[in-house]
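User: quick one, fold this
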Amino acid sequence: MRKKLGTACMALGLVLLLAAAALLAYNRWDDWRAGQSVAGIQDALEAAEEEYSDSSGIRGDGEDISGDGQDIIEDGEMNSIEIDGYGYIGTLSIPSYGLELPVMAEWSYPGLKIAPGRYSGSVWNSDLIICGHNYTRHFGNLRNLEPGDTLYFTDVNGNVFYYEVEETVILRPTDVEEMMSRESGGWDLTLFTCTIGGQTRVTVRCSRTD
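Assistant:
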């Protein structure tokens, strides 16, 4: 009886070990897939941006964008380009990690498997919030950003907005008001992602510097 019990325990341990190895392999594959997805979309986005801006030199609302300066949209709306059924508002660049990430116009759970998305706000209103999956090739390194690190956002019209990291905080999933409230710091740009297990949110606050 004792021998049978020992054999059963060994078999169970082997099954659990194989399951853990399979899960690790899947997570690594999923991270790699996310990186490949972002790279492909970024190429398509850059080509679409060039075609979009060169076609007429006119923004969708009729404002001339052919000059070198930024053209502020008074109502804060951001233009988007559709790629593979999703709208994209531009590219987030994080030089510290060599990342160029396309940003979807609206976030969704299926969309986050592909690329980060806008949670709320606009670059023009200085209240843009972007959420992303904690893939290494997406927002997995947010927790390692330090105050003073620079990043920038380029919209689909080629306007560039420069930012500097001010602080990193950990929020609970229920801290929606603190995430979005202007009174919580008036941050020009906020980036956030789930920690492993999804119990908290790594949240990076940034101020515009240009």
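User: anything notable?
Assistant: Strands lie at 81-83, 86-94, 99-104, 117-120, 128-131, 150-155, 160-171, 189-194, 201-208.
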